[in-house]
Design brief:
The chain is mainly α. About 80% of the residues lie in helices and about 0% in strands. The protein has a single domain, classed as ABC transporter involved in vitamin B12 uptake, BtuC (Orthogonal Bundle). Helix 1 runs parallel beside helix 14 and helix 2 packs across helix 3.
Length: about 325
């Protein structure tokens, strides 16, 4: 396990460095890194610190948030097809961002969009816990999340349908495609506290998720408080996914793919899968964001579009593999 985490950490470090060094401004690596740390070249320092560094940091943070959230949900629900959008946090965050764009808040206040998205995600937490009730089980949580996701999706479509401003509608569509471009250290600062708090909650679920592999009754008899476990799960996923959606838009399949790729490497242990999936998700998003810049450097290819194009074949492969194993 330690070797796997070390290998994933080295991979993430290499991709993070590559993300810092790849961009439209073709500057050699050593001068770029020198400008980042010393600030000796004002123009290059501006590019490195205000453009590339926030993008690389957000790639790391968003990927880790999605990967960790996906692993936690799959462990709690004991369903390998569970993914971070299942409890509705991403849909509610997207709705908050869409309302900020439509009402002009995003244009009037630079941080209006991410803050509105975070407010939407936090509202989803209250609704999920209210709908699921204090003793609701996994099925109740899923149903509440599906209902909330459907409601948020319908409300987002309604806003687009009734939008009198074509420019706002166009901005909404492009934002919902997901991207790490044109972000600043302010976005990093907004998302980081929520991701740290959410990550701490989810990583603390390891023993409980491990006990759940034997069933809810066995977990409860071993001293696991299922109500508290569910609260920590919902709050942690909502904080991490809400923050990720707030600063990067909709980026799909990472929370589904990262745990699946690494599950066999950790022997199927939910507790071990949590940190591995966080690193794996970070590697996936960083690699995808690098690919966006290399595949179409002159076109604004969105990160969410690329992850969906790559993730769909993976999802189909997963279905076929499950059918073969079940046969």
């Amino acid at each position: 396990m330690s070797r796997l985490l070390l290998a994933l950490s080295l991979l993430v470090a290499a991709l993070f460095t590559a993300s810092l060094l790849i961009g439209p401004a073709r500057v050699p690596p050593l001068p770029s890194l020198h400008a980042l740390f010393t600030g000796n070249d004002p123009m290059l320092t501006l590019v490195m610190r205000e453009v590339r560094l926030p993008r690389a940091l957000l790639g790391l943070m968003v990927g880790a948030a999605l990967g960790l959230s996906g692993a936690a949900l799959q462990g709690f629900l004991r369903n390998p097809l569970a993914e971070p959008g299942l409890i509705g946090a991403s849909g509610a965050a997207a709705l908050g961002a869409v309302l900020a764009i439509q009402t002009g808040l995003a244009a009037a206040f630079p941080l209006g969009l991410p803050l509105a998205a975070l407010a939407g995600a936090m509202a989803s937490v209250a609704l999920i816990l209210l709908l699921a009730g204090p003793r609701g089980g996994a099925l109740t949580l899923i149903l509440a999340g599906v209902a909330l996701s459907a409601l948020a999706g319908a409300a987002t479509s309604l806003v687009l349908n009734l939008s009198p401003n074509p420019f706002a509608a166009n901005e909404i569509i492009f934002w919902m495609m997901g991207s790490l471009a044109d972000r600043s250290l302010l976005h990093v600062g907004i998302a980081l506290p929520f991701m740290i708090a959410g990550g701490a909650l989810l990583l603390s679920l390891g023993p409980g998720l491990q006990a759940l592999t034997l069933g809810e009754d066995a977990a409860a008899s071993s001293g696991i408080r299922m109500g508290a476990l569910r609260w920590r799960l919902v709050l942690g996923v909502a904080a991490m996914v809400g923050a990720a959606t707030a600063v990067a838009g909709a980026i799909g399949f990472v929370g589904l793919a990262a745990p699946h790729v690494l599950r066999r490497a950790v022997g199927g242990s939910p507790a071990r899968l949590l940190p591995a999936s966080a690193l794996g998700g970070a590697a996936l998003v960083l690699a995808a964001d690098i690919a966006v810049r290399l595949l179409m450097p002159d076109r604004d290819l969105k990160l969410g579009v690329l992850t969906a194009l790559v993730g769909t074949p993976f999802f189909l492969h997963l279905i076929l593999r499950m059918r073969r194993e079940g046969a």
